[in-house]
Inverse folding.
């Protein structure tokens, strides 16, 4: 898969937590950072500040239930947010973790 974006983020969103995976760089020079945030407004704003500090502009968010809406509303106008259908980005079966899901979203966006 050819990588087009240098900096991007995948967000695995749940009722109580948001797991973020940020990838910076391409190919073998790629760095990954993971961080977990709560879903309160001040925590979503802290997530936005963290992403801005890392100079991330492109974000993929899985459209799980209604939990994506506050993130989308707070990020609107600050980031290029790609809302993806969970059925369309389903990963290969196996051990599923929030970190793996956020990393998979980030890889697909990249």
């Amino acid at each position: 898969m050819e990588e087009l974006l240098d900096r991007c983020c995948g967000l695995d969103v749940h009722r109580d937590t948001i797991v973020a995976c940020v990838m910076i760089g391409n190919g073998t020079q790629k760095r990954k950072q993971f961080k977990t945030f709560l879903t309160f407004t001040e925590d979503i704003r802290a997530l936005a500040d963290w992403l801005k500090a890392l100079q991330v502009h492109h974000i993929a968010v899985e459209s799980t239930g209604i939990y994506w809406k506050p993130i989308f509303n707070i990020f609107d106008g600050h980031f290029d947010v790609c809302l993806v259908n969970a059925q369309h980005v389903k990963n290969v079966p196996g051990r599923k973790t929030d970190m793996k899901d956020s990393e998979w979203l980030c890889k697909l966006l990249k």
In short: The mean pLDDT is 87. Residues 7-109 form a domain with the Nucleotidyltransferase; domain 5 fold (CATH 3.30.420.10). The chain has three helices and five strands. The two ends are 9 Å apart (CA to CA).
